[in-house]
Amino acid sequence: MRLVGEVNSMSPVALFAMGTRALTNPWVVVGVILLLGYLLSFLVALSRLELSYVLPMTAFGYVLNAFVAWGFLGEVVSVNRWVGTGVICIGMALVGLSEYRKTRSGIV
Q1: Within 10 Å of residue 77's Cβ, how many Cβ atoms?
Q2: Alpha carbon distance 105, 60 (integer Å)
Q3: For residues 57 and 91, is the Cβ–Cβ distance under 8 A?
Q4: Burial of residue 25 (number of CB atoms within 10 Å: 0-12, 13-18, 19+)
Q5: Is the pTM of this model over 0.90?
Q6: What pLDDT shows up at residue 79?
Q7: pLDDT on residue 67
Q8: Residue 100 near residue 52, CB atoms below 8 Å
Q9: How far apart are the first and last CA of the chain?
Q10: How many alpha carbons fall within 13 Å on the CB side of residue 42?
């Protein structure tokens, strides 16, 4: 959004111009495409696995965000945030190693 610019006015014309710039920005378009890919893969995972298994695995996005912010955007990530990211990784490992029930007892 730094490339698109700051919102300086709340007038409908200015907001429309800002929205047009944002929606035609290649990075925004790539982001939308990636989000659609995520949604489709999430729906496929939900159709095959239990929600209590799939949902914690989506926390990988937080880990990925920390590494991208640090490596790609050059942000300074504090020790507390790295520790939190490590805790998320441990939680994902615990869920990933948990036993998955192959049979479903029905819809609750």
Answers
A1: 15
A2: 28
A3: no
A4: middle
A5: no
A6: 94
A7: 93
A8: no
A9: 43
A10: 15
